[in-house]
Each structure stands twice: as structure tokens, then as C-alpha cells.
Amino acid sequence: MGGRHLAVRWLLIWVYNALALLAVAYVLPGIHVDGFISALVAAIILGLVNTVLRPLLVVLTLPVTVRSFGLFIFIINGALFWLVGSTLKGFEVEGFWVGVLGALLYSLSSLIPMLFFRRRNRQWQNVRQQNVRQQNVRQQNNRDQKNNRQAPITIDHDPS
Description:
Elements: H1 2-27, E1 31-33, H2 36-60, H3 62-67, H4 72-87, E2 91-93, H5 96-148
Antiparallel strand pairs: 1-2
Helix pairs in contact: 1-2, 1-5, 2-4, 4-5
């Protein structure tokens, strides 16, 4: 059940991110997405780039990021957003600063389902932990009952 739950969760996040990308393209005039399929492809590519390339760039630019009090992260995000927009067909980002603003809006809109799924995941884990605790208590009670069984008491009737 856990694997299926995880797959459905990933699928929902992917679709939501594609819808968020369409919304960003609707709001910002410099970003264009040809359709929902293009948004799905762009969302998965953005996810992969942010998972693989972004951490490497953050580590490499750590001194600049520290000196700018973390503001350089916006530049990295915008550059990656612009990179994906300039390499994918069907997803276009017209300029670097449009990419920075688009990445900011996309990040903010992607935060909503992450918070929802994190909360739902915590609730699901709490239910699972409670079920495991109840099962452990039942097993302990069964062990206690087995250990407390005594031999039948026999009363000797001695006539003397």
C-alpha cells in the first residue's frame, strides 16, 4: 500500500506542478507554454534539473551565496528556469530576469502541494504508528497471558 500511495502522491505533485507552470505562463508575459503536455514535460525536466544540477551549483557558489545573504539562490533558480526554457520545445522563457521572476512564482506555487502532502504524510505515518503500537500491545498481552498460565490446582483430600 505504501508504494502505491507514494506513486499517486508523485503523480499528483507532477500534475500540480504542470498546472502551476501553466499559471506562471499565464501571469508572466515573457513565459510561454504550448499546452498541458508541454507543461508536464517542462515540470519533470525542471524537477530533474533542480534535483541534480541545482545542489551542485549551490555548493559551487556557496561563498557568493553567503556574501549575498542567500539572495544568489534566486539567481541560480532563475538561471536554471531560463536554461530549461531555452532548451525545451514548447516551453519558452524570453529572458534571464523573466526566468528569475518565473522561478520565484513557480517555487511559491509549488510550495502549496508540498505543504499539503507533507501534512497528509505525517497524518498517515501517525495512523501507521498507532496501528503498530496497538499490534505490539496485543502481542505483549498474548505473551503475558501465556506466561501467566498456571498448572491446574489440585486439592488433596487427605482423610486423616
